[in-house]
Design brief:
Length: about 675
């Protein structure tokens, strides 16, 4: 690679002899500075398996329409997932007993390949809720596929043991598809969990809570569409609460300890859950897996998409006793709708939604371990924005639900304040502004991260109902959904995963999500510092950083081998004395190891280098403390194979002189295959 002296010599000797390269495919590939923070989604996962990816488990999962018996009498038409195990552990995919709900069981570290086939009458995608994924595997609506198409999901399970789930995520149709039956559990185990010897097998029982409305023919009734906003803003609340797809759910249990995985899979309804026999709920896990130590609650408050694992010891209860899970139901506006629903008779203001009858068999019961797990490092001291949390304002105005005054629009759109850096730790604050809109709670979900709830700051004049619901929250664990009550501010602490790219944050009231209460945020990888010096030889305190991506934003070391659709980012941190001054950003390309140097102009074209009038890549009116920009912006369809050296730099004021460029001494070497 060129040293500084060779670079200077090449700068001064580059001539028009190289101008023929200016019209090469490389010239067409270089894009000018993109002002809007947006990138094309031209990295669709292949419809066939990726060569070199060797799965431990391979599944086929099909979304289709079927008729099943949910209630006595006529069958109900459902949209559901059906699947088979193509390779690997046959127990990796099952269906809950007497239910239509699939369960995928995985171990930490396993590689999965899942062939998703869409046989629905509309497009769909699968979001693996709570799992850490690269962008194109996360189920973003930009990757929805039409009827008859196939999408291959491939990923390694990196999550700790916990209760995760999957569901469709097409824009404006998520609520409809989930409501009509499309959801499933994704249960992860790890070595730590196995050593605890928690209840397993038949003693590990998922309980999926959903509310539904049926007509006289047992067909599901949903909100009208296209959505009348004043109706959809209320969220959907059903006339009956189902558990595992059944009304009046009942099961015989042995007299021993059970692990019950409670999951609120409703579109919008909140629940307060408690035991009929008056004992406390013993919580052992939440969204992000096992707690560090068990906690006790008299009752549990669960928002849509939240999961809470509880441990219950039935060994000392007499044979034949009934134990029921009691539920009070609340709309997003926190209206208690329990009495308006159908089902078993009310018990002290709550309705039994699951009934357990204890049989005569009493089994030995292992005591619950006092230490369940150790959380991954997540320290408030590591937060880079302690004094200025990243605020997300939740509001509703004129029939629209908003995040920081914005809605979800363009599939790949994000703003400057929605860019974050992989590996950094931040505080987010969700602020539920009831001054603009209805008094309504919002369960907020962030893709591809888990977070700790730091604090809840209640709103002024908070209702008794809100206080009651707050007392049932379990904020001790790692979370991916947090309920934000009317007027409340909730602060959470998170570290961005190394999977960089575009991810979503949104309200998990599915009707709000479909109305646009959802936004993208961009995770960019940490850029690599390069040594910087002026062309004239003086030292500089400026920094040039370079980073790249093929599938996502990833760190760059020394040399990049780039296929098509490559993103290259640069960041310039000017010297303190230069900040606020006008600056010219300079990009220089050497296609032959330094013999020839070409400048990239503001049209993205390659030009012969003039040492006294360097072509400018872009001009910045005021050099910021940090200036990031894209060099290739996803357009790296290069026909000319070979090795290219890139030099990034800037000059201040209106200078275009070669000897006044502050640049990276060591070039970025780009090998185009």
């Amino acid at each position: 690679m060129l040293n500084r002296r060779e670079f200077l010599q090449a700068l001064s000797t580059s001539t028009v002899a190289a101008s023929t390269l200016a019209v090469s495919a490389l010239s067409a590939a270089i894009s000018s500075l993109s002002v809007a923070q947006s990138m094309t989604h031209n990295m669709i996962a292949p419809a066939t398996a990726t060569p070199g990816f060797v799965p431990d488990v391979e599944l086929e999962l099909t979304a289709r329409v079927e008729s099943l018996a949910l209630l006595p009498g006529q069958t109900s038409q459902l949209w559901r997932y059906v699947g088979t195990v193509l390779f690997g552990d046959a127990s990796a995919l099952s269906v809950l007993d007497n239910s239509h709900i699939p369960v995928i069981r995985a171990r930490q570290g396993q590689k999965f390949r899942i062939h998703f086939r869409n046989q629905l009458p509309e497009e769909s995608t699968i979001h693996w809720h709570g799992l850490h994924m690269v962008q194109r595997m996360d189920g973003h609506p930009m990757y929805a596929i039409p009827n008859g198409a196939t999408y291959v999901y491939e990923f390694t399970v990196t999550n700790r043991a916990g209760t995760y789930w999957f569901h469709p995520h097409p824009h404006e149709r998520t609520g409809h598809q989930v409501y009509h039956g499309l959801s499933g559990l994704f249960l992860v185990s790890d070595e730590n969990e196995q050593q605890l010897q928690l209840p397993s097998g038949e003693f590990d029982l998922p309980l999926i809570v959903q509310d539904r409305t049926f007509d006289a023919s047992n067909q599901l009734v949903y909100l009208p569409g296209p959505p009348p906003r004043n109706v959809w803003m209320q969220g959907f609340t059903g006339q009956a609460v189902l558990v595992n797809g059944k009304q009046a759910y009942s099961r015989t249990l042995k007299r021993t300890a059970y692990r019950l995985r409670l999951f609120n899979a409703s579109n919008a309804s909140n629940y307060i859950l408690r035991w009929s026999h008056g004992v406390d709920m013993t919580v052992i896990g939440t969204d992000g897996g096992l707690l560090e130590t068990p906690v006790q609650r008299a009752y549990l408050s669960m928002a849509p998409a939240e999961r809470i694992d509880v441990w219950i010891d039935l060994s000392q209860l007499p044979a034949g006793q009934d134990v029921s899970l009691l539920a009070e139901s609340f709309s997003p506006a926190l209206s208690n709708i329990t009495a308006t629903q159908t089902g078993a008779a009310l018990v002290q203001g709550a309705r039994p939604i699951a009934r357990f009858v204890l049989d005569s068999e009493q089994l030995p019961t292992k005591a619950l371990p006092p230490q369940l797990s150790v959380f991954p490092p997540l320290s408030l001291a590591d937060a880079i924005n302690t004094s200025h949390p990243r605020t997300v304002l939740l509001s509703m105005m004129q029939g629209q639900v908003l995040l920081n005054g914005r809605v979800f629009g363009v599939m790949d759109e994000y703003t400057e304040d929605e860019i974050v850096r992989a590996g950094t730790t931040e505080i987010w604050e969700f602020a539920n502004n009831v001054a603009t809109g209805m008094q309504m709670s919002h369960p907020m979900h962030i893709h591809n991260v888990h977070f700790k709830v730091l604090e809840r700051i209640p709103g002024a004049n908070e209702s008794i109902t809100a206080q009651q619901i707050r007392a049932g929250f379990v904020d001790e664990g790692l979370k991916d959904v947090v309920q934000v009550l009317p007027g409340e501010r909730v602060r959470v602490l998170l570290t961005y995963e190394p999977h960089a790219g575009i991810y979503l944050y949104h309200c998990h009231i599915l009707e709000h999500e479909d109305l646009g209460m959802m936004r993208n945020f961009m995770i960019r990888a940490a850029l690599v510092n390069k040594t910087v010096a002026t062309v004239g030889g003086a030292t500089s305190s400026a920094r040039i950083e370079l980073g790249t991506s093929v599938d996502n934003w990833m760190s760059l070391t020394a040399e990049l081998v780039a296929p098509a659709h490559c993103h290259i980012m640069a960041a310039i941190q000017p010297e303190a004395a230069h900040r606020g001054r006008r600056g010219n950003i300079i990009v220089v390309v050497s296609p032959d190891g330094g013999t020839t140097l070409l400048a990239v102009n503001n049209l993205g074209q390659l030009q012969p280098l003039d040492s006294n009038n360097v072509q400018v890549f872009t001009t910045v009116g005021s050099l910021a403390e940090r200036h990031e920009f894209s060099l290739f912006n996803g357009l790296m369809d290069v026909a000319d194979k070979g090795i290219y050296d890139l030099f990034i730099g800037y000059t201040v004021d209106d200078s275009r002189r070669v000897d006044e460029i502050i640049y990276n001494t060591t070039p970025l070497r780009l090998t185009v295959r």
